[in-house]
Structures are given as C-alpha cells and as structure tokens.
Amino acid sequence: MKPQINHKTLFAGIALATGMLLVSSCKDVLDLKPLNAYSESDVWTDPNLVQVYVNGIYDQTVMAYKDGGFGWGAQTDELYGNFNWTNENSYVQGEATADNQTASSLNRWGDLYASVRKCNVFLSNAGRLDTVANGQVVRTMRGEVHFLRALAYFELLKRFGGVPLITKVYDVNDKDFNEKRATWTETQNFILADIEQATKLLPAAYANDLDKGRATIGAALALKSRLLLYAASPYFNTSGDKKLWQLAKEAAKAVIDFKGASYALYGNAGNGTYNKTYLDFFNPEVIFARVYSGLARADRYNTVSRDLSPNGYEGYSAYNVVQQMVDAFEMSDGTPFSWTNPVHAKSPYANRDPRFYATILANNQLFKGRTTQFFEGGDDSPQSPYSPWNASKTRYVIRKMVDESVDWQKQDYAASQWVGFRLSEIYLNYMEACAALGEDGEALTYLNKLRAQKAGMPAVIASGQALMDKIRQERRIELCFEGHRYFDIRRWGIAETGSKDALGVIITKQADGTFTYQSSTVQKRTWIPALYFYPIPRTELQRNPALTQNPNYN
C-alpha cells in the first residue's frame, strides 16, 4: 500500500507551483504583502521564503520521466519516441547541430546554468539568515544547495564534458562574460567538492514525512558513486588507471554500507512486486526521488501511466520499446533469447526473465482486465478503432512505472514518483568497479544477489571479460528506461552500438489463435562521431566568446 502523503506541502520531490508552496508554507507572510512586493531583504531574512527559493531549484534541476529517462532511452536501443517530445529524432538521425537545440531538447544548457546561478545566489546570501533562522535549518538548506549545484554540474558534464565553472553571480552591471571551459577532470573535482560540503551539512534522513524527497547524505553519496563510475570508465579513463576504479568502488560501497538510512532492495518480479520499486513512495530501495502531486495536472509527469499505456486503453503509447531491448531479456533459465531458436521464435514472450513481464507490455499479455492486442487489426494496433494515431509503432510499450490502478479515462493524472537514485544502481556500480579491479568473487556476490532478489534469476558463473559482459547485461535490464543506457554506452566507448535502426515486429493472428512474427524497421538511424557529446547551443557561443564547441560540430 502507498503511504498517505500530503502532496500539497511535500516538496524536494514535489513539483508544485511556487504560488502553492507560498500558500502552504508562508501564509502569514502572504497576509502582509502581495506576492510581487517582496524585496531582497524580505527574502534573505525570512527562512520560509528562502526555503521556497530552494524548492524552486529542485524543480529546475531534478529531471524526471521524459526529461530524465525516456527521452534518453529514445536515443538508444531501448526506445522509439512516438511523438519526438524531447527532439530525440535530430540525434538518432544524425541531424543535431548547434543551431537546432530546441526548448524541448534534452540539451538544457540554459536551464542548468540558470540552476547554477540560483545556487550561487543562495550561497552568496545565506549568511544573512544566520541571525534570524534556526541554525540547523540554514545548515540543511546550505547542504541542499551544494547537492543541487553538484547535480546541475553533473547534468552538464554528462551532456557536454568539461564546462565553465561559475561561482560568481553575474548581474546587469557585468559587461563582459568570458568564461572558459574547464576540463572533464576539473569539472568532476568541482562537483566532488560540492558533494563533500553537502555530506557535511545534510541529514541522513528527515524526521518529518513531509520533507521526504529532500536531499540527504545518501543522495549526495549516490551522486558521488555515479560520477566516479563515469570517471573510471574506458571512454574517460583512457589509461585504464586502476586508482579511478578503486575510488568508484569505494564510493559505491560507502552507500551500500551507509548506516544513516535503512536502504534495501525492494520489489521482486518473481512474485509480482517489481513495480513497487517505483510505485511505493520512498520505499527502502529509494535513495532520492521526485514525487509529483496528484492534486493538479502536471502533463507528462503525473500523467505517466496514461502516456505510456496502449491506445486501446485510451493511452498514448508515447515511448515504444524497440525489438533490440525486448530481445536483450534472457530466458528464465539465464540463457540468451534468440530468434534463430525455433522454440523461442514460436513463442517469443514465453519463459523470459520475470522482469520482462513487469517492464515491457507485449502482445497477448493481461493488462487492466484484458489481454493486449498488438497484432494487426487488434485493439492496440495501428489499425485499431481506438486512437490509432497513438498506437505503438514497434508493437511494444513500457509497463515499468505504470500504475495500473489509475483510471486515466476518468482523470488522466495521479501522484507519481520518479526514482533518481536507488540501491540497485549502486550495486551495479559496485560490481562493475570490482570486476574492473579483478575482484571477480566480490562482483559475482553482488551480481547474483541482485538477480535473485529482484527477479529470482539463476546465479551467474563467469570471470574476466565474460563477467564484465554479464554485469553490463544486468545493468541494461535492471536500469532500462531510467536514463542510464545513453550514458553507459558512451562511457564504455561503444555508443554506436545503440544507434542501429530501431526495430519492431509485425504480429499476425492466425485462424487457430496462434501468432506469427515478422521483423520491421520503425526508424532508420544514423550514427555520427559527434554524438558522444551534445553540442553547445550557438546562442551560448555567441554570448561567450571564450567558449569552444564540442568536437565534430561546426
């Protein structure tokens, strides 16, 4: 059962309008002045108003669903974006330039630097709170902002590589803006310094349930783990420096061993509870999450169950799972699936890793009271009488994160949780670092623990490169659609493997009720070497003459 949460006052996860936050948090202040009458001295001497300001940084920095996961997946061998919501087609078709980075794009250079500026404004003014606010309150807010600035810079780093490191608050009196890009390592070290400050200032947990979702020590340590894993990976660690892998291992283990919170794996596909990882708010596996209120519509964020579901259920099929992702799931005995195996080809959705059924909705599966009909002419097909323009082009949709109890025909929005960091990722970070260091036994222990507890899958027996391949396979399955695959294949130096044409399947129902399957190409894709990084928008290059563009963009 989901915990009962007052979504009107919970933030750090909850994307409510600033006005609503003001009403719920600062009603006494609102009784004194209209919203547009706050002076700078009002804000920086009132901890309630400052907390609203910090809440706004969360809203801009912590991305979710299409911005945090699905849009990235649609640029890889995970997904096809049915409506190009994040401008992913310009990337997968090799057309991305410095001039076509739209507001809906995942580029986000401007938004992320706006977040950095807000963090810098806070840090330059926070001292003014010390004499008027509870010391612990101010301390916690400082920790939150250091975490959020670290997160904003990490989001920039993973998109662009090294970027300008801004700590000054620029204003209208500044005539020149000539900030050079830092190196990848310099940017990484800047982020680590912010994380270190955050861990000194943040609590391990919050006593008040209404504060769940705010940054914690665990969230800061999880961000450090992800960052150091990237730094140790082959594309960035070209010399194969084992010290970097050791740091990545230690960072992951620090989260696993953290005593300040009771993190534990949660949900098992083998017993039908896998999606509770995402649907049960702030469960033990969640290290950091963003929750969207069910009180007011936040399109694409608290409408996710409608957005992902098939057209025959009045859903949008917004992101279609590609055949390559479907085929990546093992058989239930741990062996690979293959279309060349006659038994597999006859019943391609039978006897698969239990996570398959919790993650992907395929043909002839029970969903919301009936079996799905992705076959030609079926209710969930492009020939359906029910919103055929919303049909899946691949004949698969995402089931992971979908709350099947929501009746989006009556109300298309409901409270939802985007999990930003969870313990399964940290296990995967740890086992990858262990394997890179040749500690195969430790890597196997955590790999098999994850497989058993999340899916009831058989143990792996492997070593060396075969073990690393198994870990990468496990990461692909366990973390799919959560925004990792795009960056994983880049940090491994194999980004082009995720850029092959997006495939689907044509399903024909026979007279005897059986089905036949024929491969189809849903989208032709083009790989260009530039796509290891995003382009810096042309407008930013024009504003700052010291900026240099990423390789292979003109």
Explain what this protein looks like in three dimensions.
It is found in: Cell outer membrane. This is Membrane protein. It holds the Pfam family SusD_RagB. This protein is mainly α. Helices cover 40% and strands 8% of the residues. It has helices spanning 18-25, 27-30, 40-44, 47-61, 66-73, 89-92, 109-125, 135-160, 184-201, 217-232, 242-256, 276-279, 304-308, 323-328, 342-346, 354-359, 423-436, 440-455, 464-478, 485-491, 538-543, and strands spanning 79-81, 286-292, 319-321, 360-361, 366-367, 370-371, 397-398, 416-422, 502-509, 515-523. The strands form 5 sheets. Strands 1-3 form a two-stranded antiparallel sheet. Strands 2-8 form a two-stranded antiparallel ribbon. A hairpin with a 2-residue loop joins strand 5 and strand 6. It starts with 17 loop residues before the first helix and ends in an 11-residue tail after the last helix.
